[in-house]
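Q: Structure tokens for this one, please.
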Amino acid sequence: MNRRQFVTHVGAAGIAGVVDYQSAAQTDQPQYRVDSDGFERLTDQGAEALTVRGVNLGMAKPGYFPGHAAIDRAEYDRWLSAIGQIANVVRTFSIHPPEFYRALRAYNDAADEPLLLLQGTWVPTADLHESGDATAVTSTVDPKLRHTVDVIHGDTTIPERSGLPSGTFDADVSDVTLGYLFGIEWPPAVVAGTNQAATDGEFNGSYVQTTGGSRFEQWLAGRLDVLASYEGDTYGVQRPLSFVNWVLTDSLEHPYGPYRTADADGVDPDAIVSTEDFDPGIFASYHVYPYYPDLLNETPSYLNHTDHREEANSYAGYLADLVAETDQPVLIGEFGVPSSRGIAHRHVHGRDMGRHTEREQGEIVAAMYQDILASGAVGGVAFSWQDEWFKHTWNLDARSVPGRRPHWSNIETPEQRFGLMAFESPETITLDGSSEDWEDATVHRPDDRTLTGLAVTHDLEGLAVRLAFDSLPDPMRWDQLSEIVTIGLTGREQPLPIGSGLTSTADFVVELGGPGDSRLLVESSYDVFAREYGEDAGLDLDAYRDGSAGFVPVREPINLGYSVPVTDEEVPFEAVETGQLRYGNGNPDAGDYDSLTDVHVDTEQDVIELRLPWVLLNVADPSSKQRIVTEWDGGLDTTDFEGIHVAAATYDASGDGSTNTASGVDPIEQAIPGVTEAHLETTTYTWESWYRPDYEERLKESYHVLDRTNWGESN
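A: Here is the predicted structure, written as tokens:
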């Protein structure tokens, strides 16, 4: 399909073959070190300065959770080839399957410039929460650390285990492994729980020790010492070490942070230092996003910080504070924004969690990378390489079936859309006016009408509708004629919100009144926002429960409200009308491509196309056809459904009551399938359930922005 740019090239790395995985003799391996000036690669030719420009690589793809370890060699070859064109470091959160290390070895054997690895070791969050004390998981973590070392040296076989990679790891990538990055975003409650027990002096390991370290910091130092000791004793090499940290457990004071329990116990990287027998160095690593936690929006020194562009920039303000207060060199191990349709957090300077086009995503990532360098950090690792469909976000997670999330594309959920590479169905509807996407759609074409056709289809992102007309004016005259589309899942008949007595089998109504005046409405008794957050939003819940509120806007929360310490300012609950529809061109190959397009109007083809995200239609899983129940007492439980009732109509938007039609219904002018006795008839659209989705890869515009601008170096 030439209308998209797909990641189909393998490149030199992919055809290099799988020969001599242990091609780098250990005695000839380059060494790496890090200090306040940054990373260095040490070879026989001397020291080479290295600023980290990295990309995080997860272990999930459509149809699979990360624990399935389902990414194959060809995929790794393609992905590393594309990553290597824009970055010099790839970071993993845990051990990947053997195919990853084989692909990385092959890439580097053929590449002019190395693609280095920051290797992580995962600690299961559930185990930490269950114990409440990090020291309780030591006996399970330490063997994983030793396995991690063996894996990068291509010198181990891991037996098959549920939810974890296994197999023979025979690709030695130690010569391109920059360092180890241990752990996860530590739950503040676990840090505090670990520290409740008294410390017994300091931790003094062979290569890592603490100075004034808390019990949690001593535990971290012990894990880093396991890495260094095992690699030194077994393979005779050393490399830089770090552990994951994030804003909620940093060592700074945050008096304006609304949630004091989350900021009660910090983790200070400066408390963990190397002994004189460890040369490569220890560095601090933080995950830092601009929109969370809320202290980044509330701390005056951050809000008033002027960045290197002479602009107000709270993100740069926090980074400056963090780097200045940390003796260790600082790497920003995660940063980024998602190109999702939905939004979950605001940022005071516009770097929100969601509702960015792919182009905007790339521009913001590039700007944040420049902020990172300007702060004095030693580099940054963008999150992430690929979109991750298995993920959920706090404000919408209850609206989908957890075990089925990887099998469809929830564009509304920010956590799924951080990637620089998208996954799309081969049958994705591009919303660009072209007819080929609609060849298999369910179509109605009545005779002798201005509204001449209704086509209904779907893709992995949502339900798609195409309205065909005898002739559309150019430019459109939305003040004279508007369109509605009705959507029904429950089989209930409702009066439609267009100033008439017309009813239809509808739970949702799309009002198309042009840019800025088009929206998706939901029948109030089926409004899941009201069920979850109606009390916080101040809604009349009785009117919603019995449906007397009529059709209402489709909303999602972005802030539950909080009180700011120091000032006692009350920040209220906030929601956005996510049912507002955006007009644009949805074709990635178009010069005016807008990845957030909901509606496309083509006056040359005389069509209007729209796509409605599944989750906004209360479809909790399209792959198994499950929807949210009708009954309020059922909360957000799900039930099966067979199909969706769809109808379309044009109506007089002037509201002057002048329209008279053959049906006698005012103000409808044309309807498909038709109107009978004040009832807008519907057609039923259905589809076959699926288990694993078919998909294709596409490099997002954000990837191309980073490539074109050299991550903001040459805008």
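A few notes: The CA atoms of residues 344 and 558 lie 5 Å apart. The chain has 14 helices and 42 strands.
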